[in-house]
Specification:
It is built from 4 helices and 15 strands. With 239 residues, the chain is of the alpha+beta class. The strands form 4 sheets. The protein has a 6-stranded antiparallel barrel. Helix 2 packs across helix 3. It is globular, with a radius of gyration of 19 Å. The site of zinc ion (ZN) has 6 residues, from helix 2.
Length: 239
């Protein structure tokens, strides 16, 4: 129906927000604004809860809505009492989301160390993976682990901007991932720059400085065919 204001881009660290329900479709509700990140670009949708006068409801998933620019939130309670116009307070599951932000930023660092096309990937709370079309490039687990931790410890600032679709068409080298193209037709495309390390269009949520990621290691490099390798990244700290 309407475009949902993406407050998670204005401040990725915001974990509470007041909003208004705009659309209700069974267990799926839309809001005028949200801090819940919708699944996309390999990053899972946020979970959390929505507080209203009629009760508090758990949000089990967040997805892009059917209309361009809209976002829908899945409630676990099919008998929820929410209706369009209701004032609500949003709370995201911050521990989970912050881990996604740290991991997602770590994926950019990993990508910067392996200068070949990315063919897929997924971000998780404890482990993530990126798939590379490596060609003849040989990857070394220990070397990658050492280099990514150097980048993390170097405390590179992460900056956000935008690029027009026309500008992006002129610089196709910016799009590293062949499988996850940035969404088109919605105006400017968000960009993420890890200062001195990596610059690319990306719609995920990220931390503001690589030092926030904490220590990680490459746990496994899987052979996924002649040219393809799947690189698994995990946090050093236990879950
Ligand atoms: Zn990203």
């Amino acid at each position: 129906m309407t475009t949902t204001r993406r407050v998670f881009y204005e401040d990725s660290y915001l974990n509470e927000l007041d909003a208004t329900v705009t659309t209700v479709d069974g267990r799926w509700i839309e809001l005028d604004r949200t801090i819940f990140y919708p699944e996309g670009g390999g990053q899972p949708g946020d979970t959390g809860r929505i507080e209203a006068a009629s009760g508090t409801y758990n949000v089990t998933d967040t997805r892009k809505g059917d209309a361009p620019g809209s976002i829908k939130h899945e409630l676990d309670d099919p008998g929820h009492g929410l209706a369009a116009g209701d004032a609500v307070r949003l709370h995201i599951d911050w521990d989970r989301r912050y881990r996604h932000m740290r991991m997602h930023t770590g994926m950019h660092l990993l990508g910067s160390l392996i200068p070949v096309p990315v063919t897929g990937g997924s971000v998780g709370e404890q482990k993530s993976r990126l798939d590379f079309d490596v060609g003849d490039l040989v990857l070394d687990k220990e070397q990658l682990t050492a280099r990514i931790n150097e980048l993390i410890a170097a405390a590179h600032p992460v900056e956000f901007g935008s690029i027009s679709e026309a500008e992006l068409d002129e610089r196709p080298e910016l799009v590293r991932t062949m499988s996850v193209q940035p969404p088109r037709g919605a105006g400017d495309i968000r960009t993420v720059r890890v200062l001195d390390v990596d610059y690319q269009p990306c719609g995920g949520t990220h931390v503001n400085n690589t030092s926030e990621i904490g220590r990680v290691h490459v746990s496994k490099i899987e052979n996924k065919g002649k040219r393809n390798r799947r690189v698994h990244l995990v946090f050093d700290e236990p879950t």
